[in-house]
Amino acid sequence: MDQVLVNLFKGAEKVLGYPLDQYKTPEQKQDRWKRINAVKGFWENLEWMPNAKKLYQSITRYDAKVLSAYTNKDPNSKIGKMKWLSKNTNFKRKDIHLVLRSQKQNYAVSDGKPNVLIDDHPKNIKEWESKGGIGVHHTSVSKTMGELKRLGFK
User: Fold this and answer.
1) pTM of the entire predicted model
2) Which of 62, 110, 112, 136 is the most buried (most CB within 10 A)?
3) Which residues neighbour 73 within 8 Å (Cβ) at sequence distance 6 or greater?
4) In order of start, what are the domains of the chain with their CATH numbers?
């Protein structure tokens, strides 16, 4: 969801005044989350990523589901992501799985068949594939749609 459909980095930079990845030390990271936590509606009001609506429309022709990590550093992230999805997409609640990042890999296979994960983090893709799933490393909508087409999605 983050950096695939939702522009988390842009939203965080608006709050922090600096790119999210410039917060390196544990103290800086704690401060970053404190500042984000203080913004009412942060998660539910994030913008779409550029061209992400096109990707969303493409994947929803299939049995698409949302698998997104919430952070335990912000008690608002899980409910905020649910609100964003409810406001901006037509995913049914049963098709939305918000989990800790380390739990994503547990969804790699269903009924003995590999699932496809679109994710911007190489670590998530590696863990997903090690559990038998098919990973698509998202760097842009056009590249992701090309990879999905190569996998047989039209």
Assistant:
1) 0.93
2) 136
3) 29, 33, 37
4) 8-37 (no CATH), 52-150 (3.40.50)
